[in-house]
Design a protein that fits this description.
92 residues, alpha+beta, three-stranded antiparallel β-sheet, 2 helices, 5 strands
């Protein structure tokens, strides 16, 4: 058994475990034995390629919450608490 990439038009659509011999096919796709570079959402052009997607921008609410946490953290540290103590107390 090995891991295979299900590739359609150069895009890795899925990853499966297959023995490579039992009759199995996916319509309009190639089954290509995966390498360590194979990932769903990646591409295949004779070799596998994957680029991590850009993380989404934080929402206004997330930015405001982080600013409040940073403010609380800096005020507690100004009172003499260590960064580790603040992190343990608030899980940040």
């Amino acid at each position: 058994m090995a891991t295979y990439a299900v590739v359609r038009d150069g895009l890795v659509e899925n990853m499966i475990i297959w023995d490579g011999q039992t009759a199995f096919s996916v319509p309009d796709c190639e089954l290509i034995e995966a390498t360590s570079d194979a990932r769903m959402g990646g591409t295949y052009d004779g070799a596998f390629h994957f680029v991590e997607p850009t993380p989404p921008e934080p929402t206004a609410e997330q930015v405001a919450r982080q600013e409040k946490l940073d403010s609380v953290k800096s005020k507690l540290e100004a009172l003499g608490l260590t960064t580790e103590e603040v992190s343990e107390a608030f899980g940040i």
